[in-house]
Amino acid sequence: MSNNISGKVVVITGASSGLGEATARHLSKLGAKVVLAARRKERLEQLVDELVAAGGEAVAYTTDVARADEVKALIQGALDSFGRVDVLVNNAGLMSIAPMSDVRVDEWDRMIDINIKGVLYGIAAALPVFQQQNAGHFINIASVAGIKVFSPGGTVYSGTKFAVRAISEGLRHEVGGSIRTTTIEPGAVDSELKFGSSHQQSRDFVVDFYKQAIPAESVARAIAFAIEQPADVDINEIVLRPTVQEF
User: Fold this and answer.
1) Does residue 210 carry a catalytic annotation?
2) How confident is the model at residue 81 (pLDDT cuts 50, 70, 90)?
3) Which of 25, 98, 181, 215 satisfies CB 3.0 to 4.6 Å to 199 for a cystine?
4) Chain centroid to CA 42: how far?
5) The pLDDT value given to residue 124
6) CATH architecture of the domain formed by 9-228
7) What is the reported pTM?
């Protein structure tokens, strides 16, 4: 039985751990050809070996999403490997929580580079391919912090995730028709995201907050749900949280 995922070529950024890794495993199990991107080469290669050993098709490209040329090379690599790209999961992200009064401008810059520019670079690289194919699907990972501001501490992080939602909605409106756009807004999900803060008090708070986290597979299932819909159905937004999460 076709699940509308089998055979699709899916590029996933931030694939060396957390949501990206769980999504790669889940989609590979459903028959997708996965193209994995992250900065940690060894982690990617281990995952590729594991997926291939299980009968899947997978390749990896070491990629820093904050570099437009590397993201472009990633999409080209996917084309070289599999001849097309059906889905781009813009998942790579950084969450550095700290009070605004600490003015950690370098952390603000890094979050903007990864969370906003990384998504834009992914769109810039994949959109011409999708337009040429007259088919394609962007899946952008935002956050519940992109629906309401996670403050104190997460103000800039929230700003980046609000931006992802705005960009996704504008993109959907501009290129919809044959190209689909989905924004996923998870709450607390078990991943390395919670370790992104250098401000110790904020880091302790976040790690404690994430004790209620649900597994990364929860998001992988939501992504699969969006992909498996018929081509004329575009799941635009999915918000998911642990049942017990208040924020």
Assistant:
1) no
2) very high
3) 98
4) 20
5) 98
6) 3-Layer(aba) Sandwich (3.40)
7) 0.97
